[in-house]
Design a protein that fits this description.
The complex is a heterodimer of chains A (about 200) and B (about 575). By secondary structure, chain A is an alpha+beta fold. In chain A, about 40% of the residues lie in helices and about 20% in strands. Chain A starts with a helix and ends with a helix. Chain B is built from 20 helices and 17 strands. The chains are: A alpha+beta (about 200), B alpha+beta (about 575).
Chain lengths: ~200, ~575
């Protein structure tokens, strides 16, 4: 009969409509602004409404999420910043849109390059968030951030990040990428141990 | 009969390409049309996949490269024509393979190769007042800094600057000699309009009592149905379409020139931006092309991960396509959002695996960027065995029998089998016309030969069949995914050490994959340097548009929107 398909289709819409209300009753006032309900609502068992009440609620980002690189520094004994970056330039060489500028300087006395960047610029208007810089950095010095709320009022003044703006402590890195951090620390410890062993063997 | 016997017939005019790393034949331009007819009619290479040009600046010559295949499947045939670099003229193959139409226009536009006998050899991606042919090796773009990345100014004496500061606005454009932009009247449009088929109201006389008028309508570039910036010039007889011409290039960024400036690895994230609904599939094609040149194969686990990602991408893209098609048919956003809900769940997986929902940049030469994070396989398993099959069935119940969908799409935009092959249509558009051509089967790549799946084929070639083919392909992808999740081995995800500067031996390669939109090909020429010498993309959306005008003729203007929706173009890929 003509119209059966339409009615079947409307049945699907009705099912979705009812499921949303059933879901409402199931969560009864606890549907929004709670992590467990958000995980359920956005997970493979989701029924009913699928929306996220941004910005009151935010989807948790997975560990690998990448948005704008930052420079990792460790805090020294006197509270000074010890950058992991040695200004080797691999990140600026691998960067597809070429948005990384590194200023390397030489020691005024010896004339040899200092293994730390004097300045470090990233034009975040150009950055395409590909993550290649973080992937190929041999010193784990540049990592991709999780902060995606980057709007600003002045494009010309605010969108070239300098070293100051890019620096974040290693504890922050640990907090956003615990698995990667643990893995890298383990690899580093192993390397150190191997070095130690080699030195002892000599 | 083999091709070797034909070398006798074309004595002196047909030679093997003997350069190291190259394949195929070099045909003399005088005999090209005859050769093309021979391979089509006598050898069965009836499907011309790709036409492109390469500017060999050091040798002072330009080469046009053709890739032809048999629509029954199997390996392809590469043939080339070499002409001098100054004023290159090559006979057009449009009369034999109409699918070469847009591709030859593109080669004229970007490389300045004149195709003799082409019915409408105008620029296609650039505007008519553009100066020069940008893919020529000696052409420099207005923001030109250096001819190869990495640029020297970035390190060690990096100084941050905005490119606009170095090349202020209005100083950044080159015009042809004796051209003043202020006094310019776009003549191109007049030429375009005058080329349109118009039926006189009397010629069109089909017994209707109402007299109709001829009008020209521009749909787009800003039109919601075009899914981007895309313009269709439609000549109407009443409400019936007499002729339709697509106008492209509004999103053109000369991806290929950027690609030739980049190093091999840098191109990987750029491929994401082609068909941005299927970034993993684009990565796949590019990785295959470069791996073919490098002569490496990824480890087992990486192959499985790749197939998994490519099939998830297919589901994402087809869901999106079905959703937008229904939007175009007027079912405003309800089916679209049901489809997008499922898409979101897959994008969550992409985000966890690669770090980005759409711009995945996940594949590397000889593997993938990183291993699957913990818990992802379980998530995929749950999706592909439980939720997605249920939801696809729901979508099927929801839409397939719907009378409005059926009346709006059955018999609309018909592309017959022969025409589909002639016009080099690909993907669901080709398969809905009764050609069971799927690169995964026709010339199996990666590990697709291990999986049990069917190629979805329908025979009517209309909008409805394209929709059904997509729905069926989602089901087949789910089948493949179930096998992937079952069989995926442990092990390495990358061969060798990750390198940021890969060594690619000189030669050419054509890597093609079955992307959701159709056959995506990457033609790469390496000269052993860190940057590709030529980087060409055979983009399925672009070539599928060649037949668009034909499909629309005789239908109503409201159907244009539906037909375009059923071809499923992505402008990032059309305009490149």
């Amino acid at each position: 009969m003509y119209g059966i398909g339409l009615i079947k289709g409307l049945g699907v819409t009705l099912k979705h409509f009812i499921e949303t209300y059933l879901d409402d009753i199931r969560w009864l006032g606890r549907r929004y602004y709670r992590d467990e309900s958000l995980a359920e609502r956005q997970g493979p068992h989701a029924r009913g409404i699928f929306t996220v009440q941004y910005p009151e609620e935010k989807l948790p980002v997975p560990e690998e999420f990448r948005c704008i690189p930052f420079l990792v520094y460790e805090v020294g004994e006197d509270g000074e910043r010890l950058y992991r970056c040695t200004s080797c330039g691999i990140c600026s060489k691998v960067c597809p849109p070429q948005c990384i500028w590194i200023v390397r300087s030489n020691d005024p006395e010896t004339g040899r390059p200092i293994p730390s960047p004097t300045e470090f610029f990233i034009d975040i208007d150009i950055c395409m968030n590909c993550g290649l810089c973080a992937e190929y950095c041999p010193f784990d010095a540049i990592k991709m951030d999780h902060d995606y709320e980057l709007a600003s009022y002045d494009r010309l003044a605010d969108h070239i990040y300098n070293k100051e703006r890019l620096s974040k402590p290693v504890t922050y890195y640990e907090s956003i990428r615990p698995m990667n951090f643990a893995f890298e620390e383990a690899a580093r410890a192993e390397k150190e141990a191997a070095k130690e062993a080699r030195r002892k063997a000599k | 009969m083999t091709l070797e016997e034909y070398t006798d017939r074309f004595t002196g005019m047909l030679n093997f390409d003997e350069r190291k790393g190259y394949e195929g034949y070099i045909v003399h331009s005088e005999r090209l049309v005859e050769f093309a007819r021979t391979i089509r009619d006598e050898l069965g290479y009836d499907y011309l996949s790709s036409v492109t040009g390469v500017d060999y600046l050091p040798d002072e010559q330009i080469e046009v490269v053709y890739h032809a295949y048999r629509s029954q499947g199997g390996p392809g045939l590469v043939f080339k024509v070499q002409v001098p670099r100054i004023n290159p003229i090559v006979p057009s193959l449009v009369s034999i393979f109409p699918g070469a139409d847009f591709q030859e226009r593109e080669a004229w536009d970007l490389l300045g190769i004149r195709f003799e006998g082409h019915p409408n050899l105008r620029r296609i991606l650039m505007w008519e007042g553009f100066h020069g042919h940008p893919l020529r090796k000696d052409w420099e773009e207005p923001y030109f800094e250096e001819s190869e990345k990495p640029f020297n100014s970035r390190w060690p004496e990096g100084k941050a600057f905005r490119i606009e500061e170095n090349k202020p606005f209005k100083k950044n454009v080159q015009y042809p000699p004796e051209f003043t932009p202020d006094g310019w009247i776009p003549e191109a449009d007049t030429a375009l309009y005058s080329g349109m088929v118009r039926l006189g109201a009397k010629d069109a006389g089909n017994g209707r009592s109402l007299e109709t008028d001829q009008i020209l309508v521009n749909l787009g570039p800003q039109h919601p149905s075009t899914h981007g910036v895309f313009r269709m010039v439609v000549s109407l007889d009443g409400e019936e379409i007499a002729d339709l011409k697509p106008v492209l290039g509004y999103l053109h960024r000369n991806h290929e020139k950027i690609g030739e400036r980049n190093t091999y690895l840098m191109n990987m994230p750029f491929t994401d931006r082609l068909d941005y609904l299927a970034s993993m599939g684009n990565n796949f094609g590019y990785a295959l092309a470069v791996e073919k040149l490098m002569g490496i194969t990824p480890p087992e686990r990486a192959e499985y991960i790749r197939v998994m990602m490519a099939e998830l991408t297919r589901i994402v893209s087809h869901l999106f396509s079905i959703g937008t098609l229904l939007n175009d048919l007027g079912a405003f956003f309800t089916p679209m959002l049901y489809a997008l809900t499922e898409r979101e769940l897959i994008l969550d997986i992409f985000e966890a695996v690669s770090g980005s929902r759409m711009m995945c940049n996940y594949f590397r030469f000889g593997g993938v960027a990183r291993d699957l994070p913990e818990g992802i396989l379980e998530k995929v398993y749950e999706l592909v065995t439980e939720r997605l099959p249920r939801k696809v069935d729901e979508l099927d119940t929801y839409l397939t029998d719907n009378e409005i969908v059926r009346t709006r799409s059955i018999g609309i935009g018909v592309l017959p089998r022969e025409q589909a092959i002639e016009y080099s249509a690909a993907g669901p558009v080709l398969r809905a016309s009764g050609v069971g051509y799927d690169v995964r089967r026709a010339e199996s790549y990666s590990i697709y030969d291990r999986f049990d799946f069917d190629v979805a084929v329908r025979h009517n070639g209309d909008v409805y069949d394209r929709y059904l083919v997509r729905l069926e392909e989602i089901r087949q992808s789910l089948r493949i995914l179930q096998q992937v999740v079952r069989d995926i081995p442990d092990g390495e995800f990358q061969t060798g050490k990750p390198q940021y500067q890969v060594r690619v031996p000189p030669g050419e390669s054509y890597g093609r994959v079955e992307n959701p939109k159709g056959e995506l090909g990457f033609y790469i020429v390496s000269n052993g340097k860190p940057n590709p010498w030529r980087y060409h993309i055979r983009s399925p959306s672009f070539i599928n548009l060649t037949a668009f005008g034909e499909m629309c003729k005789g239908h109503k203007i409201a159907d244009v929107v539906a037909i375009l929706g059923s071809i499923d173009i992505v402008l990032g890929e059309v305009d490149r």
